[in-house]
Amino acid sequence: MADAKKMVESITSMDVDFAKWYTDVVLKAELVDYSSVRGCMIYRPYGYAIWENTQRILDKMFKDTGHENVCLPLFIPESLLQKEKDHVEGFAPEVAWVTHGGNEKLTERLCVRPTSETLFCEHYSHIVHSYRDLPKLYNQWCSVVRWEKTTRPFLRSMEFLWQEGHTLHETGEEAREETLRMLDIYARFFEEHLSIPVLKGQKTDKEKFAGAESTYTIEAMMHDGKALQSGTSHYFGDGFAKAFDITFQDRENNTRHPHQTSWGMSTRIIGAIIMTHGDDNGLVLPWDIAPVQIAVVPIAQHKDGVLEAARELTAGLAKNYRVKLDDSDNSPGWKFAEYEMKGVPLRLEIGPKDLENNQCVLVRRDNRKKYFVPLEQLEDRLPEICGEYHAALFEKAAKNRADRTFTATSMSELCEISSQKSGYIQAMWCGDQACELKLKEAAGVTSRCIPFQQTKISDKCVCCGKAADAMVVWGKSY
Predict the structure, then answer these.
(1) Which of 57, 127, 298, 470 is the most exposed place for a label (fewest CB within 10 A)?
(2) Is the distance from CB of 260 to CB of 237 less than 8 angstroms?
(3) Range of the structural domain that residue 455 is part of
(4) Where are the alpha helices (DSSP H) in 252-331?
(5) What total number of domains does the chain contain?
């Protein structure tokens, strides 16, 4: 157990230094490695496997709602990007430019995509002519580049992986329905597959996506009380369509502009998983996206029959679960610490005494609860234990959010809460951007969203005291 103790001690306690704890976990659990390119990271097999499982689940959810995958270029000509002024201004500080091809200077700079609205618009202008061509329900899995000043693995990097949906519709009503439908898919994915409760709502005009009429978000609270914007869905109206001259003949043979949406979720969600569920021993991974769901550890594997039984169990479980048998010569204590570090949801132990009793021992990662399960009941018990594990992760995260959600009815109260506590602050807002900016300056908080589920705390703005009918959730964020 000395090896195990040493491994655990090598992770900084989250209560001592949460940022250092996060970096320790990311590196020691072998999720990523730093690259020689500033702000870029190498996704190691274990980290990339989490993303692959995320892709698999989300891709099915998208396709179940009629979306198709496409692949568009990495580069965007400057003239194309300039067609949508608001969009360009919003991304200008983050754009990376290609100025040379080989040894020759390009006649026109190429932008390395920070997002692909302009490319999709150009494509749609070529292929959409009639209402019969609509809707277009497209999604792209790719990487994007944003020239960030400060970076941190998964949370903010120069290049990151994501999916970006881009859809085109006959009417504004249909496009708005799509925007909210995709937000619901993101919320379902977080709560049903990642065991993370989310807050759904609309972004203020100051925080909305460049070029959008409306931006909707799911916000997740991390263990330390900070918010993480985890998925966004945008309604563009027909603004992009007008800028890129996308038109179609409607059902009355009139020429019209279609309405557009986009929505995206990135590898930042892996950061959300780490910071929501992790503990001082490392990762705690949700069942559905864990690269290894069950680690099989033979105890006293040199004894007769132990290794054979472990291999037989692994082969049987592998039909329905992602299973790893560790038959290395490392000590059981080292293996326990290793799979705790990597957040494997269940550890299955089997040794000589278990063989005598025709049982195995299952140990949950989140609370180390042990289940002594007869081998003939293992297949039936596993779904039940998996359900308990998922529910426990969700309930713990929900409790953390509830315990860290506060209410303020005055500016002084909001500032006091922000300076002394970490979490969400619910407060009324008049809708004036000046008040939003003042709250950021005075309390260091930003508007996370205007929740769909409103609670009227008072009838006055927390900042200026004028009439207010919108409750906003404020907080500090990653």
Answers:
(1) 127
(2) yes
(3) 405-475
(4) 268-277, 306-317
(5) 3
